[in-house]
Each structure stands twice: as structure tokens, then as C-alpha cells.
Specification:
Layout lengths: L5 H15 L6 E6 L2 E8 L2 H13 L5 E8 L7 H12 L26
Parallel strand pairs: 2-3
Antiparallel strand pairs: 1-2
Helix pairs in contact: 1-2
Length: 115
């Protein structure tokens, strides 16, 4: 167990995050018995893991729980949002069956005349 109080560990983590990654203002740091939990939202996976590494090297930290979420789409103009939402609604075209496969209704069909 760390000898530092949790409030001081939180301050060390925040300082290390601020030194390592600039512009990460939406991060919440909680410490309980030197186990640090990171919460918030960032714009990229690179930022998420940079914050995680910064928290791990901060003074007094024993373990880091990374609950940081990555924004799927950064805030952008209305036209970009319309284009990106159209990607989700694009219909999926089913694959065509091979040409040499007969449909089940045509297999073993005997004529009505008994031949």
C-alpha cells in the first residue's frame, strides 16, 4: 500500500497527465488505496493510452483502472455528421449463390405425367 494519501496521489496523477498530454481536460481521476480510476472522454485511442501511461508513472500509484471512453466521431460540421450517419444506413447486399447450385425446388422434380 502506498504511504501517500489518496488526494495527493490524485494530484500527482493530474500533474503527470497535464505534463504528458496537453488538452485532456475531460478526465476524472479517483484514487482509493492507491488504485487510480480514470474516467472521461477523449478523441483518440492514442490519447487514452497516453493518459493511462502517465497515470501509471505518477508518484504513489499502485494500479490504474482505465475507464476512459473514445469518441466515435469528433464534433464536426453538420455535413460531416450526415455523411458519417449515412455509412451506418447503407444496406448490405447479400452474396449471390454460385451459378452451378440448383435451388431446392428444382431438385428431384418429377413431372405430373409420371415420367
Amino acid at each position: 500500500m502506498s504511504k501517500l494519501p489518496d488526494s495527493e496521489i490524485e494530484q500527482w496523477v493530474l500533474r503527470e497527465i497535464d505534463l504528458t498530454t496537453r488538452g485532456s481536460r475531460e478526465i476524472c481521476v479517483l484514487s482509493h488505496n492507491a488504485v487510480v480510476t480514470l474516467r472521461g472522454t477523449v478523441k483518440s485511442n492514442d490519447q487514452k493510452w497516453a493518459i493511462d501511461r502517465a497515470a501509471q508513472i505518477a508518484k504513489g500509484v499502485l494500479c490504474v483502472i482505465n475507464d476512459i471512453k473514445v469518441e466515435l466521431f469528433a464534433k464536426s460540421s453538420a455535413t460531416d455528421v450526415k455523411e458519417k450517419s449515412a455509412w451506418k444506413r447503407r444496406p448490405r447486399i447479400p452474396p449471390h449463390p454460385p451459378a452451378n447450385v440448383q435451388s431446392p425446388s428444382r431438385r428431384n422434380v418429377k413431372s405430373a405425367s409420371g415420367q
